[in-house]
Amino acid sequence: MQRGSILHILYTWTVILLGVFLLASFAGELDLDLGREILVMAFLWLIAEGLTVSLPHGQLSAGWAVALTLFLTYGLPAVAWTGGAVTLLGQRLFGHGEPWRATLFNAGQCVCAFWLANEVYHYVGRVTGGEAALGALPVLAFTGSYYLVNHLLVFLYLLPRRRYYPRVLWREALKWDALTYLFALPLGCLMFLLWKAMALWAAALLFIPALTLQFVLRLYIALMLTNRELIALYHVARRLGESVSLEKTLDFILEAVRRVVPYRTGVIYVWSDDRRAFVPAAVNSPFARQIRENLFGPGEGFIGWVVETREPEIVYDTREDPRFKGEAGFITAERSLVVIPLVTENEVLGLFLLGARWPHAFSERSLSLLTIVGGQAAVAIENTRLFSQIEYLAQTDPVTGVLNRRYFLLRFQAECERASEKDEPLAVILADIDDFGRFNEVYGPLVGDAALREVARVLRNFLRGYDLLARYGGDEFAALLPGAAETVAYETAERLRSAVERHLFGVEGVAEPLRVRISLGVAVFPSDSGSLTGVIQKASRALKEAVGRGGNTVVLAAGVKGVGYFR
């Protein structure tokens, strides 16, 4: 277990046990004869918890008005016991399956915050002399100190997970909660005065408008969050129109989603034809290394099952879902999951997955939003695939599958500039199939195309991984060798000539295996010429010389070891 996790557990249980200790010490001071009044106030407080306004960064409630009324009327023991009980009961009734440890922590920190706020209240009251007469400063000090201590304790509890929830803005949480306390503070004072002057029912009636306002605020926050979702969708759609790589687009989608749907793990998988599996193209998770090392195919585990069904799935609690029995990997560390296949008309292009540490972290609303975002991600993947196909067709020769002449010359120019900057040589080899016209006459153009493909395959196999090969003309090939001087270029050309000469290939309809031979001309930049055109001309002249010598030979534009030299 990591050191940070141990410290977090120790902190959590320290707060819980301190809260239990404080409640035990207050137990003797509770007046059980006031049980009916305290139960009524606890009921109002519990209703306020049930109407809690949920925000991405926390929850808002008018319960502080009840807490302040109880404190001013019956003191610390009553408010501490009631607050702890309401927090415990409210989060189990109205929560979303939070772990018991989190619920106990919230109850414990509530009791601790009341105790510290009480100390500040009495200290300010003694200094100002306003405690007994509902002085403004002691009440403000009590509210302010509870507010600060409460947020500090919660902040420390959430600290280990904050880097996985960047949209949880602490400043915004402080602002909204402060507005709630500013509203509840005078309301609590009025409820206290009405209770003292009239009866408990008067204070309870005054609290009803507060609950109404809280309900209206809840609707407003829902509209605000909807607006955030629309903004996030707009930014994702706009990003799709920009010329950026697929990886950057998918990373942006994960970041945009996090602003409206908090998660700990976010992954977008893309199908790879080469690896015959779904590969993580964008990952945002503490388990990133494990996720990138593990691929999956259709039908493999729960995620593979979702691919086969092609339907979005939401998992509220992986520990309770029978489909996760026997599962392994990072998804077993997440309590909640949303898995959305990225589907086009005929195939699954990828998979969009979000995971959270807590159960019930995602709702049907989240699923609807993420399905829309998943559709946009599918568009991005499909556009990238189409662009790659178009780019491939624009760069390659349709018969042989190697580069075409146009793209080869573009790369040649770029390699010449790079070689000039680094002061390195750059060799070009032109190869021509000997007597290819006669070969076509004898065997026909289809066999001729097969011969071109075989020659291209042999040449490719005997070149380095970073060398370039292109079909330069009808039966002519060109190879570009970065960093190769005359000797290396000549040896490479001779190796290519020998490999083609030895190679036999069979063709349907032809009884005997066929064989072809090639002639090669070699020139080197910048020793033979300092320009692209000049190097091509020198290589062409060398190739012409090789053909003139009867073919199946190599000629350099500059003499090496007695090989023909001319200008």
From TrEMBL:
Domain GGDEF: 424-559
Membrane-crossing segments per the record: 6-26, 38-58, 64-90, 136-158, 178-195, 201-221
Cited Gene3D superfamilies: 3.30.450.40, 3.30.70.270
SUPFAM superfamilies linked to this entry: GAF domain-like, Nucleotide cyclase
CDD domains per the UniProt record, alphabetical: GGDEF
GO-annotated molecular function: diguanylate cyclase activity
InterPro entries assigned to the protein according to its UniProt record, in alphabetical order: Diguanylate_Cyclase, GAF, GAF-like_dom_sf, GGDEF_dom, MASE9, Nucleotide_cyclase, Rev_trsase/Diguanyl_cyclase
Record flagged with keyword tRNA processing: no
Domain of life: Bacteria
The entry's keywords: Membrane, Transmembrane, Transmembrane helix
Protein name: GGDEF domain-containing protein
